Amino acid sequence: MRLDGGAGGAGGAGGGGPVIEISGLHKSFGATPVLKGIDLTVGAGDVVCVIGPSGSGKSTLLRCVNLLEQPTAGSIKLLGVEVTDPDVDIDRVRTHVGMVFQSFNLFPHKTVMGNLTLAQRGVLGRSESEARAVALRNLEQVGLADRAGAYPAELSGGQQQRVAIARALSMDPAMMLFDEPTSALDPELVGDVLAVMRDLAESGMTMMVVTHEMAFAREVGDRVVFMDDGRVMEDGPAAQVIGSPRTERARVFLHRVLNPTAVDDSELGQTEPPQPGDPDYVPQ
């Protein structure tokens, strides 16, 4: 067993080895297949951005990584430990994985400091003073040290998401998983959260980010993975996948995302013809 990336976060697994290894991953909900054979490796210090249309399996993939969803088939290794092994101590593995969701999932009855120290004390066994020191350091990193005594309801959505990031960092993870962390935010609040994530990337944190923020993916991502219909369609350098995608499906998706008001000539005239009962229906 190898699990050697827990302290300090940046650099992940140590020695430059793979931090996340996914092989032949399948996931079905009942009779509906959602992931259809995913192979993906994330190295120490890599920032991998996962993009694709809604329903392509991006969030399910991320949730399978730390077993929030149980894969139907395939193998997932984190820091050398196969988390899909029925005998794995998944709680121990999860202490090395920070995850930030679309919703902030903060405890509303606890202050910001309380949210950041709870798991440190209960899971890592830190003293109150040590946990508070770690929490304050991470609040400073996300620019919210002055809000330690506030309750979540007293914060904006962007501030709550930054608190959620600080809470994850307070567990000293070896890797961070982000599931569309800005999708629930007002547009003017997105920048502050992305700035924190950019700083994390520059510090060497291993990151896997499901996102619709194409500018972030292009500027910060080392690699971009394009998914569609439960499969990885493209995986390569960010500039290549976003700037010159190889597959037609990726080209169509990126054209629509990057040019939301544009209408392609090929899409004109593709409306459904009038049906019986419509005012302009003409019988044939």
Write structural notes for this entry.
The protein is an alpha/beta fold. The protein is built from nine helices and ten strands. A six-stranded mixed β-sheet has the order 6-7-8-3-9-10, with helices on both faces. The radius of gyration is 21 Å and the shape is globular. The N and C termini lie far apart (71 Å). The model is unreliable at 6-15 and 267-272 (pLDDT under 50).
Highlighted features:
33% helix, 284 residues, alpha/beta, four-stranded antiparallel beta sheet, 10 strands
Summarize the helices and strands and which ones pair or pack.
Elements: E1 18-29, E2 32-43, E3 47-51, H1 58-65, E4 73-78, E5 81-82, H2 90-94, E6 97-100, H3 112-123, H4 128-141, H5 157-169, E7 175-179, H6 187-203, E8 206-210, H7 214-220, E9 223-228, E10 231-237, H8 238-243, H9 248-258
Helix pairs in contact: 3-4, 3-5, 4-5, 5-6
